[in-house]
Each structure stands twice: as C-alpha cells, then as structure tokens.
Amino acid sequence: MNEVRIHKTGEPEIIQSSDGRLTLSVPIQFKRRAGRKQVSLPNGQPGLPRPWDTAATSLQLALARGHKWLAMMESGEVSTLTEIAKKEGIDNSYVSRMVNLTTLAPDIIDAILLNVLPDQLTLFDLAVDPPALWEEQRARMLGGRVGSP
Predict the structure, then answer these.
(1) Could you state, in order of their start, the residue ranges of all structural domains in the chain?
(2) What is the 3-state secondary structure of 96-142?
(3) pLDDT digits (tens), the chain, 149 positions
(4) CA contacts within 13 A on the Cβ side of 96
(5) First-to-last CA distance in the chain?
(6) Whole-model pTM?
(7) Alpha-carbon 18 to chain mean position
C-alpha cells in the first residue's frame, strides 16, 4: 500500500528507490477556508484554485476522458479500448483518440488546462495520430512553441 506523508515545513525532496522508482516529497499544508480545503505552497503562498464559475472547455473534457479511460485499462477494469467503447456506448475510434491525448507533452497538456492553445488548433489536430516524441508534437502542433498564460 502506498504511504502518504504530509509535511508542513521543509524543502521538496526526490528519493530514488532501489528498483528505479522516484518519490517526490513536496511540503504542503492544508488549511480550511470557508469550509473548503486550501493548499499552501512551500513558500507560504496559497495555491490558486480554479474559479468555480469557469466551465471546462471541450479539450479539457476530452483530456479528462482520455485519462479516465486509460486508468480503467491500467486498473484492469477493462482490457481493451473496444470494451470501453461498448461500456460507454460510443465509437471505438473516439475512445482511441481521447486516450491518445494522454501521450501529449506536459507543456501541451498545461496549455490545454490553462486554455492558452492557439485558436486554430483543434481536438482533431491533437488527438489523431500524435507523434511519439514530444519535440515532434510541439513542432507539428504548435510550431515549436506553446502559448503562455
């Protein structure tokens, strides 16, 4: 079972185990604010939550679906994309494209979550046969750069 440790003070720390796995220890503190939990960053500044009145974009929802379906496969709940499609009552190719989104470069995923991708970039551009290498993804999809917040 994974052990969860919450440190209230200290510096972030990376621990490498003998089997090659890395554990990242990040000192955070949870505070209750008006009935909600708020994360305080190591420098004491509060973490900025997503505004409650902001609806998720279609790209953000697609990315979430892709991660959900990948997690279903990794957990053994389903064994194939076809099973997911049947379970969800949707087309197999749609499931495949959404799972492809989970292979995008971290900065492209950040741009999706921050909603700062170029307007001309579509879900089709991101999800259909993305290059395996992140540098190639950036070059093909974004001209080598990602939008900033």
Answers:
(1) 1-48, 58-142
(2) HHHHHHHHCCHHHHHHHHHCCCCCCCCHHHHHCCCCCCHHHHHHHHH
(3) 445 444 445 666 777 777 878 777 766 666 666 666 666 666 777 766 666 667 888 999 999 999 999 999 999 999 999 999 999 999 999 999 999 999 999 999 988 988 888 888 889 889 999 999 999 998 887 775 554 44
(4) 8
(5) 38
(6) 0.62
(7) 27
